[in-house]
Amino acid sequence: MELLHFCKMTFYKLWLFTLSTVVIMISVSRECNMENMEFLCMSFLPLNYIFGLKIMVKGKENLRTKKPFILILNDQTSLDIMVMMEVLPSRCVPIARKEILYMGTFSLACWLSGLIFIDHKKREDIFSLLQFHVLIFPEGTCSHGSFMLPFKCGGFQLAVKAQVPIIPVVISSYYDFHNQKEKRFRPGKSIIQILPEVETLGLAPDDVPKLTEQVSDSMLTAYQGISGMTNGTSH
């Protein structure tokens, strides 16, 4: 099982870096352009079939809006990239940690696709992007387990400042098909729950902590529900 896990993770990383090179070749003529994100998404979609991962998306109707919004997504492992491509809307700018800049061809492909690499201390750098859709991971780092980490307020401050709604998106625990500690990587399923938008119109900076807690609580409840958990423990 450990050898199988190693082989699959190695294949995943090789696919990531190899297909990134193809994306770079296709996208380089258009330079840094969020329209290139379509090519990056397409390069990851076959992985779900290769690994036998079935993804069920609930609440798709909550993404059927053309107005600007901030997409809030829980962060588990590097496999998030493969799963989230199923729901990433068009003209959406993901916000990534600067550490990804050092991931070789993948980081270049991400940059050409419009990904924004920021220092968490300088979130004001992306305020001008809120005329589009913005994707943010509020936990700030991968949880690597069957739980969610406390949310940072940066993304919520941006939403309130720009007066744009927040759309929470929850990905179920990967325990069914992947577990790093147990070295398990097998066919399985993942559920993505898109929650109704949370309006920020009329909210002020003082409302950010309460807004952050509200969204965090609703996402945690959804996470436990779609992950088949009781008291935070996976079945």
From TrEMBL:
Pathway: Phospholipid metabolism; CDP-diacylglycerol biosynthesis; CDP-diacylglycerol from sn-glycerol 3-phosphate: step 2/3. The chain crosses the membrane at residues 12-30, 36-57, 100-118. This is 1-acylglycerol-3-phosphate O-acyltransferase. It comes from Buteo japonicus. It is an enzyme of class 2 (transferase). GO terms for molecular function: 1-acylglycerol-3-phosphate O-acyltransferase activity. Residues 69-174 form the Phospholipid/glycerol acyltransferase domain. Pfam families: Acyltransferase. Its EC number is 2.3.1.51. GO terms for cellular component: endoplasmic reticulum. Keywords: Acyltransferase, Membrane, Transferase, Transmembrane, Transmembrane helix. The keyword GTP-binding does not apply. GO terms for biological process: phosphatidic acid biosynthetic process. CDD domains: LPLAT_AGPAT-like.
